[in-house]
Amino acid sequence: MALTAETESRLYRSLRVASGAAAHLVALGFPAAVAVLARPGSSLFSWHPLLMALAFSFLMTEALLIFSPETSLLRSFSRKVRVRAHWALQLLALLCALLGLGIITYNKHLNGKGHFVTWHGLTGLLAVLYAGGQCAGGVLLLYPKLMKNWTLAKLKLYHATSGLVGYLLGCASLMLGMCSLWFTTTVTGASWYLAMLCPLITSLVIMNQVSNAYLYRKRSQH
C-alpha cells in the first residue's frame, strides 16, 4: 500500500528528529570519550585532542543545530536569541580550536618535531583558519549595510554554505586525527570504527539541515 503524502511527511519529520537527537548525543559523547582517552592534564599533548573535539564536535555542531526547526534545543526561543547563542558557541569553538592548535604547535616545538607535515596537521590548520574567517564573515550579517550590493537573504545563504564547508573541514580533521599513531594505538577494533562514525553522522545531519534550508528559501522565492 502506498503511503499518503501526510504519512510520508510525518515519517520524514520523525527521521529528522531522530537523526538530530543522534547528532546531539554524538556531539557530546565524542568529546567525552576523547577526554577519557586523553586524560587531560596528564601531558601537554593531552589537551590538544580534547580541545579540538570540543571545538569541532560539540560546540560547532550545537551552534549549527540551533537553527534546526526539529531538534534545536532553543527552538522555543526567538530567532534573535538563537542567533546570539550561535555566535557565542562559534566564538567558543574558535577559541578552543586556536588553543588546541597553539598547544600542539608548542608541544611539537618542545619535542623537535616538524609542524604541519601530515594531512591531519594541514587539514586542522586550514579548518582553524577557515573558522576564524567564517566568524569574521558573520559580522556582515550583523552589519549588512557594509555590503551594499548584497541582500541580507543572500548573505545568509552564503554564510550558511561557507559555514558548512568549514564544518566539514573540521570533521575531516577529526577523522584524520583518528588515523594518527596516538589514536590508533589507544583505540582498536570495532571501537575505532564507531569513533570514525561520530563526525560522519553529525556531518550528514548538518548537510541535510543546510540543504533543506536552501530548498525552503528557493521555494519561498517562487
Automatic annotation (TrEMBL):
<keyword id="KW-0812">Transmembrane</keyword>
<dbReference type="GO" id="GO:0016020">
    <property type="term" value="C:membrane"/>
</dbReference>
<keyword id="KW-0479">Metal-binding</keyword>
<protein>
    <recommendedName>
        <fullName>ascorbate ferrireductase (transmembrane)</fullName>
        <ecNumber>7.2.1.3</ecNumber>
    </recommendedName>
</protein>
<dbReference type="InterPro" id="IPR045150">
    <property type="entry name" value="CYB561D1/2"/>
</dbReference>
<keyword id="KW-0349">Heme</keyword>
<feature type="transmembrane region" description="Helical">
    <location>
        <begin position="190"/>
        <end position="210"/>
    </location>
</feature>
<feature type="transmembrane region" description="Helical">
    <location>
        <begin position="164"/>
        <end position="184"/>
    </location>
</feature>
<keyword id="KW-0249">Electron transport</keyword>
<dbReference type="GO" id="GO:0140571">
    <property type="term" value="F:transmembrane ascorbate ferrireductase activity"/>
</dbReference>
<keyword id="KW-1133">Transmembrane helix</keyword>
<dbReference type="GO" id="GO:0005783">
    <property type="term" value="C:endoplasmic reticulum"/>
</dbReference>
<dbReference type="Pfam" id="PF03188">
    <property type="entry name" value="Cytochrom_B561"/>
</dbReference>
<keyword id="KW-0408">Iron</keyword>
<feature type="transmembrane region" description="Helical">
    <location>
        <begin position="87"/>
        <end position="106"/>
    </location>
</feature>
<dbReference type="InterPro" id="IPR006593">
    <property type="entry name" value="Cyt_b561/ferric_Rdtase_TM"/>
</dbReference>
<feature type="transmembrane region" description="Helical">
    <location>
        <begin position="44"/>
        <end position="67"/>
    </location>
</feature>
<feature type="domain" description="Cytochrome b561">
    <location>
        <begin position="14"/>
        <end position="217"/>
    </location>
</feature>
<dbReference type="GO" id="GO:0046872">
    <property type="term" value="F:metal ion binding"/>
</dbReference>
<keyword id="KW-0813">Transport</keyword>
<dbReference type="GO" id="GO:0140575">
    <property type="term" value="F:transmembrane monodehydroascorbate reductase activity"/>
</dbReference>
<feature type="transmembrane region" description="Helical">
    <location>
        <begin position="21"/>
        <end position="38"/>
    </location>
</feature>
<keyword id="KW-0472">Membrane</keyword>
<feature type="transmembrane region" description="Helical">
    <location>
        <begin position="118"/>
        <end position="143"/>
    </location>
</feature>
